[in-house]
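Researcher: Last one for today. Full complex below.
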Amino acid sequence: MKFLALLKKELRECLPWIVAAAAFLLIFGSLELRSMVRRDVEEYQYRVFERYSEVSAYDLGKYPLGDVGALVFISAVGLGLALGVRQFWVADFTGTWGFTLHRSTDRTRILAAKICAAIISLIAGVGLVLCYLFWRASLPDYSPVPPPIGFLIGGWLICGVGLLFYLGAGLAGLSKARWYTTKLAGLGFAVWMFFTFTQQWTLWWSFVTLVIGTGVLLYLMWETFLKREF
Amino acid sequence: MIDEVVLETRGLTKYYGSVFAVDHIDLKIPRGCICGFVGRNAAGKTTAIKLMLGLLNPTAGTSKLLGCDSAALTPAIRQRIGYVTEGHRLFGWMNIVELERFQRTFFPGQWDGKFFAEMIEYFGLSKKQKIKHLSNGQRAQVSLALALSPNPELLIMDDPTLGLDAAIRRQFLSGMIEIIMREGRTILFSSHILGDVERVADRIVVIDKGVIRADCKLEQFRTAVKKVILAFEDSAPLQVDIDGLLHCRRSEKELAMILVGINDDKIAELAKSAGAEKYHIANMNLEDQFIEYTAPDGRGKLFKWEEI
Amino acid sequence: MALWIQISPGSDKPIYAQIVEQISEAIAKNELSAGDKLPAVRKLAAELVINPNTVARAYSFLEQGKLVTTKTGSGTFVSDPRLYSRDAADINMLAERMDTLITRGLNIGLEAGDLAAMFRDRTNKFVSKQKSEEKKK
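Model: Here's the assembly. Have a good evening.
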């Protein structure tokens, strides 16, 4: 009950950003799909993938759904940053940490509610819209060959990148260091992991990168949140 | 249970760089006590309260609420403590109904919904109003209702009446009195408004530059801090050496002394031995006493209030 | 029910002393007569927005001065003046207070005769007010 109440509160605060990201992706993604039609048919004929694992994250920027892929990056990263700021920076300005943290529940649970809300937000704001766009792109009126499932999986991994940036922004918000010292370290780490992610040859390795990056940031965030002074 | 200490700090210290925000404070608040925590601006009141609630980490010393260490307050203990934050900060986007629903989830079996509804109605607030559309005073009212409705054993309030108009302040105090009348409730509130402290508190703790200067019953403070003016025939002496002298101001033929814990008979003796022609014990209200007590010239002096 | 009691916290007189003073005066002026019930501690505290202990202290002080008596379970009542046992201490205290007033009076330049007359007049005024209050009842 308590966790749900916290989760509901966090989700409600994330809602405007979910809507913004979803709208952005839906509108521009749909526009992109309309413009592609038969543009890259020949490319498809040369590069038909049999196994999705042959698609790399880098490829996602090159192929038909690829332009949409760039949009997915933008909305996932944008949403991630917005959520990080909303959950961890705003409370400093509004002075509401005291009210939030003096609760009959552990601080870990309060943090867990925030993170769950962020994950749900990324799924709803980016992941689901991506599924819709993928389904649209699979329809015969868009391309002769349906895009490989790898694109969809890749797209979902990009949501994971959004999570990395969320955690990075959150850590930056929680850090009490100066701007020019370690305050942005978490965000810097997220950026580094993002570049590493895109340089992997296969989606599998991108996934592994994501898991490691997220794991590190999650641990750091948990430790910081528990010890931080409000 | 009777003399149980509800709030205890030992050598609680917090410093930022080289500045002591809170300097080795020792407090023992028993159950049922209504304690007014007073001090000038930036005396360390908010820092001390945040340390007690585990929102800040102490540099040294310990703090315990209801027997539990402040750095590790369990959910069960937090459920027994009400906290009104400085500025009554609440979630702006929620309306009163949503806030109530949120708050009551954390006090299962303890929440008095009827009391909350009555308070909101008494304050003339509409349930559908969003917090961000309320004035400071209205937000304070909601904040008070949210803090009192779980019927907490220990209520900690950080400057709850700051910036509120006289009528709303009075309502706030009424709410506190309501709590006081319930058995075994303890309140610690910091305040700048000595009149409020005088109405409601039975104990006063004076903090100045992070140091506790007084910790005693309110009536004790009221009777102990005295202003005595000695008038001299010729010129007043440059200084007088008296145990219990806080500070002293000299004009040509008069000496105005602030004495702590000296009874009237002894004052008469002192006046005589100092060679004064006449002496006069001035009337001071609590605000005067507080101002004199926390004046910079007397800052270094600490009194043993247990012995006064 | 004694809603006329007013206190002001910023005064140099402690709150309980203000309550004591007002009730004492009311008893002296016969606005409160023997057997009248004083408001319950909690009720008065809620009304004046002060700590109930302060009201309790005031009542306790009045009781020490024998102006009121508390019957456990029933409340606090104004005492019957006939039950006052004036002891030497009471008379002494009164004499001391009179001395203070006499000193003040002489210090501001009043003649002894004028001072005594002033005393007499005011006492008479008080008593006649008492009688008219009684007549009202």
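The interface with chain C takes residues 34, 170, 173-174, 177-178, 180-181, 194-196, 198-202, 219, 222, 283-288 of chain B (CB under 8 Å). Chain B has a mean pLDDT of 91.
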